[in-house]
Design a protein that fits this description.
By secondary structure, the chain is mainly alpha-helical. It is 47% helix and 8% strand. It has a two-stranded antiparallel ribbon. A two-stranded antiparallel sheet has the order 3-4. A hairpin with a 6-residue loop joins strand 1 and strand 2. Helix 1 runs parallel beside helix 5. The longest helix is centred in the middle third of the chain and has 22 residues. The chain starts with a strand and ends with a helix.
Length: 215
């Protein structure tokens, strides 16, 4: 049985990315244009005073935040998306796309191209794991700039969600019991496990682990 190249969960269909990681990667790719726009207010560093003096004798304007400038430039977010799309097109034997327009227009074109190729990427591309991880890391880094969040307790790790969809595919996402929660809830499939089924939940998780090890 193959393992998903992003989350390392068993992938019974033989695809390079599991259904969950495929959907999550699609969402991350779709979010890139909005994250690009969301960086605009952060071009100028917050707080502090300018260095040197302006021509009028007052403090010089604050310098541009170079990290944000690079991310919004031709080699930043758009560069990552375009490079991956070029790799996909090359490995599929397609012609190289012609780049045109401003950075935001090029980013939207690259995103559209990647999304159109996601079914092939997940099922047929050996580089799918590197692609999905690179996009995940990029989106995570952008979000830390735009909307940094304090660290939260990760909770107690219980194992993998044993819920199955109507087609019999195991969810397999990691279950955690967060401080103060009265029920265990899978963040991916939404299945809730109240306290009265926790003993059975442990048995299901153990059975699935044994089955995975046997496979």
């Amino acid at each position: 049985m193959n393992l998903c190249l992003l989350c390392d969960k068993p992938e019974p269909t033989g695809s390079y990315l599991c259904i969950g990681c495929t959907k999550a990667t699609e969402v991350r790719v779709q979010s890139l244009p909005a994250l690009y726009r969301g960086l605009a207010p952060f071009l100028r560093p917050a707080g502090g005073v300018g260095q040197g003096r302006s021509g009028k004798g007052g403090p010089a304007p604050l310098p541009v935040n170079e990290e944000v400038l690079d991310l919004r430039g031709p080699g930043g977010i758009v560069g990552v998306a375009e490079r991956w799309l070029a790799d996909v097109r090359r490995d599929r034997g397609h012609s190289v796309a012609t780049l045109s327009g401003g950075v935001e227009a090029r980013l939207q074109a690259a995103v559209t191209g990647l999304l159109a190729n996601m079914p092939w990427i997940a099922v047929s591309w050996p580089a799918a794991g590197y692609f999905a991880k690179d996009i995940r890391d990029l989106v995570d880094s952008l979000r830390t700039i735009i909307a940094p969040t304090p660290a939260v307790a990760r909770g107690q790790r219980l194992g993998h969600c044993p819920a199955m969809d109507p087609s019999g595919v195991l969810c397999g996402s990691v279950l955690r019991l967060m401080p103060g929660d009265k029920a265990v809830r899978c963040e991916w499939c939404g299945t809730a496990y109240p306290p009265y089924v926790w003993a059975q939940l442990k048995s299901w998780i153990t059975e699935d682990m044994k089955a995975s090890d046997a496979a």
